[in-house]
Write a structure and sequence with these properties.
The complex is a heterodimer of chains A (117) and B (199).
Chain A lengths: L24 H15 L5 H17 L8 H15 L5 H12 L16
Helix pairs in contact in A: 1-3, 2-3
Chain B lengths: L12 H14 L5 H14 L2 H13 L1 H9 L1 H7 L10 E5 L4 E6 L8 H4 L4 H4 L1 H9 L1 H7 L9 E6 L5 E5 L11 H4 L5 H5 L8
Parallel strand pairs in B: 1-4, 2-3
Helix pairs in contact in B: 3-4, 4-5, 8-9
The chains are: A mainly alpha (117), B mainly alpha (199).
Amino acid sequence: MTAPLDIEGPAAPPRSNGELVFSEPWESRAFGMAVSLSEAGAFAWPEFQAALIARIGAWESAAHGEPWNYYQLWLAALEDVLAGLSAVSAAEITARAQALAQRPPGHDHAGEHDHPH
Amino acid sequence: MTTTSEPGGRPSPALRTEALEQLLTERGLIDPKAINEIVTTYETNVGPLNGARVVARAWTDPQYRQRLLEDGTAAIKELGFSGRQGEHIVVVENTATSHNVVVCTLCSCYPWPVLGLPPSWYKDPAYRARMVREPRTVLAEMGLRLAGDVHITVRDSTSEVRWLVLPERPAGTEHLTEEELVPLVSRDAMVGVAKVAAP
């Protein structure tokens, strides 16, 4: 932390203001990716926002089979935008995620991106 | 650990996110270090304390208050708060007879530079739908009981207008300095689901 943030009470910084900003680490990565991609010019923020609104709207008009999870819809919206740009397809993400699921327990995280299958 | 899949073999969101980050990094579209920086910013540096400083200044400086109500984004920038989702901030004042409360009915629009990222209840479908239909009831459920003659205005935030509430300065704080007022101002008061209480 660089700025002095020593104030206590209701105006204290986010971490001590009632709840964590992100409840799981992946949520923070999904958040950061969308912001970073938009700032790098991969898409304009309103494009992402429209995709997020569409995902939220679809959840609300569905029969609520899936429990509400804001960042899952955020991730899905990000995938939608990237697929629309032909940057990354859903199938590629699924294949890589399945490969990651095959990792043996205690594998080394050190920057390796190999996927054996 | 993120090595689990959901039932049915569908990769968990944690795995999908990790996969996406790998693919985007390999394609040169993102830099994980930049993501770290963005996350750290919103986890530790940008939060409702910024908005509390804006409110405390407005309470103690009538000319600043005027500028804030006329052009929120510009007046907020005077205090050094600007950037992502900080465009088009409009500030509305709560008084003894008129109460504003903010919602984003379609998604989660929120003035990040002054409040940080929204709390989970703000994004919740029930809050988003019900605050528009029955604000007095929802506010009461959240602990804010407003008298029947208080006029309530529900402000729907969008990317074109992000609302910030200037709460009413509580009675009995006239002797407090701007710095002493800052810690009294809560996030909830700046969204309009609470009032600021005197210490």
